[in-house]
Structure formats: structure tokens, C-alpha cells
Amino acid sequence: MSEALPEGVQRREFDGTERLATRGEPVYGEPTDGEWRAWNPHRSKLGAMLELGMDTALSGGETVLYLGAASGTTVSHVADFAGPTYAVEFAPRPVRDLLEAADSRERLFPLLKDARKPATYAHVVESDVDVLVQDVATRGQARVALENRQFLADDGRLLLAVKARSEDVTRAPSAVFEDVQAALSEGYEILETRTLEEYHADHLGVVARPR
Ligand SMILES: C[S@@+](CC[C@H](N)C(=O)[O-])C[C@H]1O[C@@H](n2cnc3c(N)ncnc32)[C@H](O)[C@@H]1O
């Protein structure tokens, strides 16, 4: 728990347990306390990365491109403390819920787009974003991160959750993680990795910056 939390994220007590929290309208039935809502690390890889004390370099107010937004569980928390937050998701069903989460969040911009085709949203997303968050849980996770590197500022950060089983269910997760890191190094310098096992089976959290 060494690293500082971004401004707008606090550890607060909910029912006697200290948990991460942001200020905003509830989205997924999470406990609330006044305007604060608990951020469940079991349902959020970025929440797990913060809970585990990874150095995300998030300080609050950043411009964020979030890939794999699903119904908005995590990206809603991000938009509670970040600046403009572009949320890419290619499945129409979860995007309906994502739009609802965006109703009360004026800095959250849902995009029904395929993260493997960045050219289709390059005209919408501003350049030099501070943070690229990726949780697509699909084959080719390193490739998606490399293809979206173009949006990141030179001193920006990639905050990536790698799901081993999405790459190959038959291989040992550690071998998959090695391959993904090797592929990533084509465009990123990896600063920190950490297994998210405590919260998400067979997932690796990665912090990297563009090289
Ligand atoms: C593990 S879920 C994301 C959960 C979400 N990040 C959260 O914490 O609230 C992965 C999501 O990525 C989406 N996804 C997978 N491949 C994608 C792609 N190429 N473009 C956009 N979304 C994609 C899936 O449809 C799914 O909703």
C-alpha cells in the first residue's frame, strides 16, 4: 500500500471495512456512503492494481482512453476522478449500461468501437492522452496496446490488465505473461508488473510507458 492514491480516490469505511471509494452516482449496486461509492477490486482490475499499491502514476484529472469498458463498472470510477475519459467497448449490450453510467458523468464519453481499429475513433479521441487503460480480455492484448499507443503522450502511462486465458487456455499463465511482455516491449518500456491473483485469477497488472 505504498503508492499514493489519485486525488478523488480515498480509503473509506463501508460497514466497518476500509475500501477504495470515489464520488459519483452508483453503477453496479456497490455500497455508498453519502456521495462516496465503494470501488470493488474483485470486479475491477484497475481497482485491484490500486488496492495492491502499484505505482499507476494516476494523480486525478488526467485524460484517459479506456479500452474494454464493458458496462462501465471500472470506467465509471475512473471518470469520477479523472478528466475527459473516452470509453471504448465493441459489444452493443454492455454499452447500453455504459451510456446510463455516463448520464450523470459529463466527462465520460462512451464509444461503441473496436479497439483493434483505432482509426475509427482517432477523430474523436484527443491526442496526447495521459493514461491508456486496457482490459479487453481478448486474444492479442499486446497488439491492441501497441495499436493504441499512438494516442498516448510521451510521458503517459499504459495501465494494462492481461488475462492469460484469453491468449491461450492451454499454456501456463506465466508463459503467456512473458510472451505478452516481450510483444509489448516493441512499443513500451515496462515499469512494473504484478499478479492480480488475489482479486482476479490468471491476470497480470502492467504499468508501462511509451518508448
Ligand atoms: C473483462 S471485460 C471489461 C470489464 C471492464 N473493464 C470493467 O472493469 O468494468 C472485457 C471487455 O472488453 C470488450 N472487448 C473485447 N475486445 C474488444 C475490442 N477489440 N474492442 C472493444 N472492446 C473489446 C468485451 O466486449 C468486454 O466487454
Automatic annotation (TrEMBL):
Residue numbers spanned by region Disordered: 1-34
Uppermost EC category: transferase
InterPro entries in UniProt: Fibrillarin, Fibrillarin_CS, SAM-dependent_MTases_sf
Keyword annotations from UniProtKB, A to Z: Methyltransferase, RNA-binding, rRNA processing, Transferase, tRNA processing
Composition-biased stretches (Basic and acidic residues): 9-22
Sample GO molecular function, one term: RNA binding
BP GO terms, sorted: box C/D sno(s)RNA 3'-end processing; tRNA processing
Residues holding S-adenosyl-L-methionine: T73, T74, E89, F90, D114, A115, D135, V136, A137, T138
Keyword Ribosomal protein: no
One Pfam entry name: Fibrillarin
Domain of life: Archaea
The enzyme's E.C. designation: 2.1.1.-
Family: Belongs to the methyltransferase superfamily. Fibrillarin family.
Subunit structure comment from the entry: Interacts with nop5. Component of box C/D small ribonucleoprotein (sRNP) particles that contain rpl7ae, FlpA and nop5, plus a guide RNA.
Role description: Involved in pre-rRNA and tRNA processing. Utilizes the methyl donor S-adenosyl-L-methionine to catalyze the site-specific 2'-hydroxyl methylation of ribose moieties in rRNA and tRNA. Site specificity is provided by a guide RNA that base pairs with the substrate. Methylation occurs at a characteristic distance from the sequence involved in base pairing with the guide RNA.
Protein name from the UniProt record: Fibrillarin-like rRNA/tRNA 2'-O-methyltransferase
Organism: Natrinema ejinorense
